[in-house]
Write a structure and sequence with these properties.
The chain is α/β, with parallel strands linked by helices. The chain contains 10 helices and 5 strands, in the order βαβααααβαβαααβα. The chain has helices at residues 20-31, 38-46, 55-62, 74-79, 89-97, 114-117, 134-144, 148-155, 160-185, 198-209; strands spanning 9-14, 35-37, 105-108, 127-132, 189-192. A 5-stranded parallel beta sheet has the order 2-3-1-4-5. It is globular. The relative contact order is 0.22.
Length: 220
């Protein structure tokens, strides 16, 4: 597959808690663009995984929520991430190829890694990796799961603070891997610490992505 087949795709990847979904939503609304939501897509392709081809994904699906973070070392959780092993990236590409290519498509997904994206890009600016400052991430994730129901839906019936601590440490390992691969592949990284508004970040990405507003409809 050549990079021209996905030349219309713009990738917003990186670390959790960096504000990827917020920035993607701003761009989608401002430029009237479709969004490929990686979190929603995972439920679809998780059902297509096999133990032979996607062992880490199958193991994750079988693991109860209560055992995914609590009581585990961050390094262990990190090494078990299906995305670290590229197990489901082929599903993402397959689904993107099935979408219309007449205008840009925004991908909101932390899972793609620079080494996977680099061969699919006509230019590096088609992708960006947003990496949050650790304190910024902790505040964002703590606020996201402050509601006990939201925390239970993600972590199960365990101490949410303990699960969050493991998750934050795992995500710092993920960020380090993303940064290392981005440096090797020459793909852009944006550090996010909350000093700039999502609108400012969206404006920068729009310029890098080469997004332009749809032409206004002609009057009758």
């Amino acid at each position: 597959m050549g990079a021209d087949e996905l030349a219309h795709v713009r990738w917003i990847a990186g670390g959790t808690g960096a504000g990827k979904s917020t920035v993607t939503r701003i761009l989608a609304e401002r430029y009237e663009l479709p969004v490929y939501d990686g979190d929603r897509a995972e439920a679809r392709y998780a059902r297509r995984c096999t133990p032979e081809r996607q062992p880490y994904m199958c193991a994750l699906v079988r693991t109860p929520k209560e055992e995914r973070f609590a009581g585990r070392a961050p390094e262990e959780v990190f090494r078990a991430m299906p995305s670290l092993h590229g197990e489901t990236f082929g599903f993402v590409v397959e689904e993107l190829l099935a979408l219309p290519a007449d205008r840009p498509v925004l991908v909101d997904d932390f899972r793609p890694l620079p080494r996977e994206l680099a061969p699919l890009l006509e230019r590096p600016e088609q992708a960006v990796f947003l990496l949050p400052e650790p304190g910024f991430r902790r505040r964002n994730l703590a606020a996201r799961y402050a509601d006990p129901a939201a925390a239970r839906a993600t972590y199960g019936d365990v101490d949410p603070a303990a699960a969050l601590a493991v998750r934050v440490a795992r995500d710092e390992l993920w960020d380090a891997e993303v940064r290392r691969q981005a440096r090797e592949t020459g793909l852009p990284v944006v550090d996010v610490d909350g000093s700039r508004t999502p609108d400012d970040l969206a404006a920068d990405l729009a310029a890098a992505f080469g997004l332009t507003p749809l032409p206004a409809p002609k009057g009758g």
